[in-house]
């Protein structure tokens, strides 16, 4: 009985007094905000080695850090001065409360967070080895994020959004997959722009074919897609990721407003219905690449949420993508994803320094 009471009090402290009716002050965001970005999917604890360039087996110790691509994007948008919310599920455990509180501390509306008493918050051990390859070890058997049900969706939060953003990890298992599809339907019906970052994590899928099929199953519904070079190669069965014709014939679909291909430190390519081009990257000395793609996405979505004309305005879009490139660059100069997400002021300072060097 005491434990149950403590748990209930913890939830009120983390989520605000009434989890069914979020107050903007308690949870970040605003009910009347017309530029809200709502992110759907996983939030978890990343364990990263305390030293760089080692395999997971060689790591002497690990440091915990909040993670999960959709949650990273939500925090990234908020750090840039935008309005964001997060929908997902964590365990009814200490890590779950920690993650919900981190969202709140970063002014992310966390009214869509649910706690599962029967499953733990997901854990991931992540390292960047000396050979440059990332290594992942996931603990999800199943984890709470996989168990979010349609009945637990914060429909009100989705309907407020201008942009609804998601990945593909939430498509792997039921019941989360059906919940993901239901959330997309609600968002589309509400007039939201649908944003998709596949964020391929092969070890989590039953097979390569299942991953390819699962990722592509919702491809043609997105208005915005961000994809990496490696993901192009994977999804096209080995085609050249630098070939515009490959991108345009195999990945660009008639409903797309914007497709962005990220090229790490080299910058990004963009494709719209009317124009296409490339924006150079911002050069920095990297420390940890974790979260760089999510920071980039947050930069893009924050710009579009406040100015929908960017889909037709190439110069404006190029400026927004340069801003996003700087977001990603600044993130790799610090360890971890959420701790490294930059503020708008930091990005503008970075861009001013880049301009001064030209």
From TrEMBL:
Protein's job: May play an important role in maintaining the flux of carbon towards starch formation.
Pfam families, sorted: PfkB
UniProt-annotated stretches for the region Disordered: 1-32
The protein's annotated pathway: Glycan biosynthesis; starch biosynthesis
Reactions mediated catalytically: D-fructose + ATP = D-fructose 6-phosphate + ADP + H(+)
Gene source species: Prunus persica
GO cellular component: cytosol
Protein name: fructokinase
């Amino acid at each position: 009985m005491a434990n149950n009471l403590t748990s209930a009090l913890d939830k009120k402290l983390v989520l605000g007094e009434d989890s069914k009716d979020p107050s903007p002050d308690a949870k970040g965001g605003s009910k009347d905000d017309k530029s809200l970005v709502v992110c759907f999917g996983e939030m978890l604890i990343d364990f990263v080695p305390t030293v760089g360039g080692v395999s997971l087996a060689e790591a002497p110790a690990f440091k915990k850090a909040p993670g999960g691509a959709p949650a990273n994007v939500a925090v990234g948008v908020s750090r840039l001065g935008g309005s964001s919310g997060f929908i997902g599920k964590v365990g009814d455990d200490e890590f779950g409360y920690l993650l919900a509180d981190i969202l709140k501390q970063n002014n992310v509306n966390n009214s869509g967070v649910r706690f599962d008493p029967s499953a733990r918050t997901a854990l991931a051990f992540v390292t960047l080895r000396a050979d440059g390859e990332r290594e992942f070890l996931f603990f999800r058997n199943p984890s709470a994020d996989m168990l979010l049900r349609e009945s637990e969706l914060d429909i009100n939060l989705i309907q407020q959004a201008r942009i609804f953003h998601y990945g593909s990890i939430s498509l792997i298992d039921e019941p989360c997959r059906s919940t993901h599809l239901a959330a997309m339907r609600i968002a589309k019906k509400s007039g939201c722009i649908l944003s998709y970052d596949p964020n391929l994590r092969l070890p989590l899928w039953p097979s390569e074919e299942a991953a390819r099929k699962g990722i592509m199953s919702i491809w043609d519904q997105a208005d915005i897609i961000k994809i990496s070079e490696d993901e192009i190669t994977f999804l096209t069965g080995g085609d050249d990721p630098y070939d515009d014709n490959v991108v345009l014939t195999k990945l660009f679909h008639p409903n797309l407003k914007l497709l962005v291909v990220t090229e790490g430190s080299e910058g990004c390519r963009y494709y719209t219905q009317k124009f296409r081009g490339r924006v150079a990257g911002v050069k920095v000395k990297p420390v940890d690449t974790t979260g760089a793609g999510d920071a980039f996405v947050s930069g893009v979505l924050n710009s579009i949420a406040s100015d929908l004309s960017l889909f037709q305005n190439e110069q404006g879009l190029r400026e927004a993508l340069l801003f996003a490139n700087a977001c990603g660059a600044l993130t790799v100069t610090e360890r971890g994803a959420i701790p490294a997400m930059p503020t708008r002021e930091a990005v503008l300072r970075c861009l001013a320094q880049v301009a001064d060097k030209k």
